[in-house]
Amino acid sequence: MGTMPTPRVYMDHAATTDMLPEAVEAFVEQARRGGNPASLHSGGRAARMTLETGRDQIAAALNAEPVEVILTSGGTEADNMAVLGLYRAAREADPRRTVIALSTVEHHAVSETAEWLVAHEGAELAWLEVAEDGRVDPAALADLLARRGDEVALATVMWANNEVGAVQPVAELAALCDDAGVACHVDAVQAFCAVPVDAHLRGISTLAVSAHKLGGPMGVGALYAPRTVKLAATSFGGGQERSVRSGTVNAAGAAAFGAAVEAARSDLRGEFLRRARLRDALVAGIRERVPDAVLRGPEPGAPEAEWEHPTRLPGNAHFTFPGCEGDSMLFLFDAAGVALSTGSACNAGVPRASHVLLAMGVPEETARGAQRFSLGHTSTQQDVERVLDAVGEVYERARTAGLSGHVPGAF
Amino acid sequence: MRVLAAMSGGVDSAVAAARAVDAGHDVTGVHLALSRTPGTLRTGARGCCTIEDSRDAWRAAEKLGIPYYVWDFSERFQADVVDDFVAEYAAGRTPNPCMRCNEKIKFAALLEKALALGFDAVCTGHYAKVVEDADGHKELHRAADWAKDQSYVLGVLTAEQLEHAIFPLAETPSKAQVRAEAEQRGLSVAKKPDSHDICFIPDGNTRGWLEDHMDLDSGRIVDTEGNDLGEHRGAQAYTVGQRRGLHIGRPAPDGKPRFVLEIRPKTNEVVVGPEQLLAIDVMEGIRPSWAGLAPREVAALGDATDARSEEFPVTVQVRAHGDPAPATASLSREAGEPRLHVRLAESQRGVAPGQTMVLYQGTRVLGQATIDSAHADRPVVAAS
């Protein structure tokens, strides 16, 4: 237990992934060079150039124009800014528009912002249910828009889910919004540079991305927002970033974000297929060793077919292990040198039954036994084998420990 | 040994974990999340379950270079400690939730999980001592520092649990020494204030908390003759021995203060009277348990289902920081149901049903039982 086998296996890329060498290099270069991108002297202009190069690279990968990319402190700020801004703009234009349509599996960065608008600005939430595989049925949104279209301020749906990897039918959902004249925000934090993401799909109003999920640094994100979209300012001051995000822009971060995006999209297809194959081997291996384990989220098709029409993030494998407590398994995997996650967001590091699994209809007791394996750019076949070597014993032992913290029937 | 150190985020459990590491054990730190809705920051000196506390525990674990996890026992804690606390008050008794937590959470749910996951023992920052007798049986004793001694709240531990319990603070001469040691070890919790009172009532206002969590109906305050003295705001929220907060307008005929003598949940009455009527010298206890081997006199009963043991000399303590009182004890069984009888050498005041009596012989904890009734030799208070 105390002697950690080396090297450790990292299976938590959805939480954060190692910075790509290109990103580290770009970051360090700008950090050494220094300069405030808003300064008018040559040093400032050089920093501005670095920053704008980064923005260009991010925009190109999103199929957007550089002016449509607002740099933020991360995915959460981008999500907050979009939901607040789209809601207020819609309501200002038409006071009847108070409904926020959102999927039941949204990230807290979106759902908590929406809940805040309910508490403070008269919003009403219309939850879009997901199927057992975690995907939103476009018919549910069509139905809502048909019934209450003129009351909806915005719809917000993530491109891909952070826990079970389900890729949402974003193109269909955004098109429905467009037809109804309703704004549509997309949280693409997990999807960007893992699957093809196109911000110019018809109907998308705003789209949030984050650097550290794809090999860039923490503390940098971006919001795609066309010129016509009115956003809520999240900070006030010098008027940087279209006056919605005042504050000196993180030039080194932007340069590194851009470099990471550039590196990732140089072979997006190749990396997608490589990751999907590793993931498929992991899924098959776990099923073989622990037949009771249940893969949650969409059943992925063959890698090539998935690339054409992704249903699941290529690096995501998410299982529930019956009779096990997620934190027991996490502890046992950690002791065996494998880093992963129970999948759900946590406060004070407390794993709780995931709202995503509950929304998918998984019973609370089953949801407590969740483990998310997420692969990334450093993942290897050896990593997969190490997990498979450990999973049988981890499962047996966690089952013995049982649901000791759980009171049957209590929730 | 593989040791799981329960780390609250306070200084005691941090130093206890450090000493377990020094002793050569393979230590893993774990913080128990006990609240379903943890506060972000600690407020004042109280409470122990905020996110700030969890971070303090993590910092200490990092300093010690040991793995650290947060385990969620909030459901169990709610069911076994908080709900039980409310139910006991509702029945007119005065429970001790810290003992319940030791009995049901730390040395039950946590210990079971630890053993299943491959650990040999659970280590806590309690001030108490586990020693082995000549035959290798574990005994629970008071800590070296009687002022900090917490053996009372561990009185519920059984022989089996003692086998897997480590209390590294056993021999510590004082709390000040623990703080100095924490400082020396570079633990950031060295100056952190003590937590006390009940962790799930962070403002210390038990009565206010009970009002929020129970259906309290106002009723009558009566004297031992049944005379109506005024109105109370829910009998269950009073405690035997309580003097303040009765708000009786009329003074007693002799001008002396009045105390709560008895809670009658069935008739929703609070009985009050002069201090001398609080005096009791006989206590009866239910659900007894032995912290290690049972006393010889009890063991002599064997499997008999209807019998009463010889009396044996003890000192008995009825609250965490009370003085031990000399007494004699015996155990009876009626149809297999055990009952502990304790006769005090000198009468005591303010003993309430629901409290735990812990029996000692010298520094050794013999065991405990939950007080079911406490009365004077010749009952002074009618209909108890």
UniProtKB/TrEMBL annotation, chain A:
| EC number, as in UniProt | 2.8.1.7
User: Looking at its record, which EC class is this enzyme?
Assistant: transferase
Q: Where are the transmembrane segments?
A: none
Ranges for domain Aminotransferase class V: 9-387
| Keywords noted in UniProt | Iron, Iron-sulfur, Metal-binding, Pyridoxal phosphate, Transferase
Q: Name one GO molecular function term.
A: metal ion binding
Q: Which InterPro entries match?
A: Aminotrans_V_dom, Cysteine_dSase, PyrdxlP-dep_Trfase, PyrdxlP-dep_Trfase_major, PyrdxlP-dep_Trfase_small
Co-factor requirement:
pyridoxal 5'-phosphate
Is the Iron-sulfur keyword given for this protein? yes
SUPFAM superfamilies found in the cross-reference section: PLP-dependent transferases (SSF53383)
Q: Which reaction does it catalyse?
A: (sulfur carrier)-H + L-cysteine = (sulfur carrier)-SH + L-alanine
Q: Name one Pfam family in it.
A: Aminotran_5
Q: Which protein family is named in the record?
A: Belongs to the class-V pyridoxal-phosphate-dependent aminotransferase family. NifS/IscS subfamily.
Name of the protein in question: IscS-like cysteine desulfurase
UniProtKB/TrEMBL annotation, chain B:
What are the UniProt keywords, alphabetically?
Answer: ATP-binding, Cytoplasm, Disulfide bond, Nucleotide-binding, RNA-binding, Transferase, tRNA processing, tRNA-binding
Positions of the UniProt region annotated as Interaction with tRNA: 148-150
Describe the location of the tRNA-specific 2-thiouridylase MnmA-like central domain by residue ranges.
Answer: 209-273
Q: Which residues form a coiled coil?
A: none
The lineage's top-level taxon is Bacteria
**Quick check: keyword Protein biosynthesis in the entry?**
no
Q: What are the binding positions for ATP in this chain? A: 6-13, 32, 125
Gene3D superfamilies xref list:
Adenine nucleotide alpha hydrolases-like domains, HUPs, Translation factors
Q: Which InterPro entries match?
A: MnmA-like (IPR004506), MnmA-like_C (IPR046885), MnmA-like_central (IPR046884), MnmA-like_central_sf (IPR023382), Rossmann-like_a/b/a_fold (IPR014729)
Q: Which HAMAP family match?
A: tRNA_thiouridyl_MnmA (MF_00144)
- What protein family is recorded? Belongs to the MnmA/TRMU family.
Q: What is this protein called?
A: tRNA-specific 2-thiouridylase MnmA
Query: Per the UniProt entry, what species is this protein from, by scientific name?
Result: Kocuria salsicia
> What is the phylogenetic placement of the source species in the record?
Bacteria, Bacillati, Actinomycetota, Actinomycetes, Micrococcales
